[in-house]
């Protein structure tokens, strides 16, 4: 040890310890007042994400992310305690759109809702083999909500569809 003050200024730390509550609150207000306000869209995104939550649903976490690839079909896999959701994304017919082909394991019929932060919601049905297809999904955040009769709903983590495609 060299006897120097620790990084962060030991003297400043000692001064803060001597502040009473009012002085400390004034110091905090001063620091927070210097910060820039968040961008206007931040509040809207926060409100939208709260509206998209499903408090009674189990989260299916991302276990394999093929979205890091930039060419050809990509396979993404989500896993919950009840079901595995595999989705393959391929470019859609329109610019910045994607086709989603999926499979639930174990295979079971299900109602699947496409959750988006913007745009009209979409819904599809998985057949008795657990297969489903969503024709056109625009680039951007995507999550799926899966409902199987008699079971707790499952929602997937959010993924950024098209984020790694230079044409999007």
Uncertain regions: pLDDT < 50 for 5+ in a row? 1-7
Query: Helicity, in percent?
Result: 10-25%
Q: Give average pLDDT, whole number.
A: 79
Oligomer: single chain
Structural class: alpha+beta
Distance linking N and C termini: 55 Å
Order of helices and strands: HHHEEEEEEEEEE
Number of helices: 3
Write down the overall geometry.
elongated
User: What fraction of the residues are assigned to beta strands by DSSP?
Assistant: 35-45%
Query: In angstroms, what is the radius of gyration?
Result: 24 Å
Compose a concise summary of this entry.
The protein is of the alpha+beta class and 168 residues long.
Account of the 3D structure:
- The protein contains three helices and ten strands.
- The protein has helices at about 10-15, 20-35, 40-50, and strands spanning about 60-65, 75-80, 85-90, 95-105, 110-115, 120-125, 130-140, 140-145, 155, 160.
- Strands 1, 2, 3, 4, 5, 6, 7, 8, 9 and 10 form a ten-stranded mixed sheet that branches.
- β8 and β9 form a beta hairpin.
- The longest helix is centred in the N-terminal third of the chain and has 14 residues, at about 20-35.
- The N and C termini lie far apart (about 55 Å).
